[in-house]
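I have been asked to look over a protein record a colleague put together. What it holds is a sequence and that sequence's fold in token form. Please read both lines and tell me whether the tokens look consistent with the sequence. I do not need a full report, just your reasoning and any doubts. This is what I was given:
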Amino acid sequence: MKVIERHWYRPRAWLTVLLAPLEALFGSVSALRRALYRVGMLKRERLPVPVVVIGNINVGGVGKTPLTLALIEAFKARGVPVGVISRGYGGAHTVPTEVAPQATAAEVGDEPLLMAAGGAPVVVGRDRVAAGHLLLERHPEVQLILSDDGLQHYRLTRDLELAVLDGARGIGNGRLLPNGPLRETAGRLRTVDAIVVNGPLVGGARWLPTEVPRFDMTLEPGAFVSLAEPSRTRRAAEFAGERLVALAGIGHPERFFRTLEQLGLKPGRRLAFPDHHAFQPQDIPDDADAVLVTAKDAVKLHCVNRARLWVLPVRARLAPDLADWILARLKIRHGR
């Protein structure tokens, strides 16, 4: 699998040829499904309130969770009640389930726990239409729904589509799975309402449609927070002279490791786990003074000795203002 993932960003001719038949099959099935929805043979369903989809055309982490958290915060500040629906990848739920304060990542998934901690009601479910109905039944005050990672969930009618891209990786080799990292062709970007680029664009972006509104997102790290004692915080400089280990089980661990470098930290080891990894006590090294982890991983690390675990929270900044743009497009008035 690692060989194929490297091929997505550093193409190998022989592998391109080998995977071409599977890519063609994936593309055909995907195109047929979209066509069936477009002509009405597969039915779409609309929820009673506006829905904004936050998704991506490529696999792997691109920054959807910090973007969703930033929008939750922005809408709350403007007096607009917002809720979130998510598939809840990695959770054990089989029917739409609201994320309760005592829920665990094993039950509802890691990202929904983070979003619920952001102060919005969150419902997880493979059927996002059913999840949306449950959300509105439990929280009738909600005026706007954010659908996490729902760009390809065509059954749910959406009012706006936001496609998130990693500026460093872009669309890779531009090919569909499994020959490339794309779930849909790059042409899909011309049909979304806005594109959010996470971090500086690297290597040019001739594939990026200029006619679609673009928002630039920057992730700003805060102070490290002790997972054992959340009231304790430390700045990067306070780890000087300690044996450090960086640990990440997210879609793109290198982004986290790069952020630590930018903060002046040089962990002796970098441990990268698969996205949504269910951590076990043995995953945490016992020979480190401090283990540095992401906020997304922190919600899954309550099963271990947390005394040496330090969480690096990040906050998304967007330019221009995305929340105001969304409210203006949807004609939602707010109290700010």
About this structure: The first strand starts at residue 51 and ends at 55. Residues 13-38 form the longest helix (26 residues). Residues 223-312 form one domain.
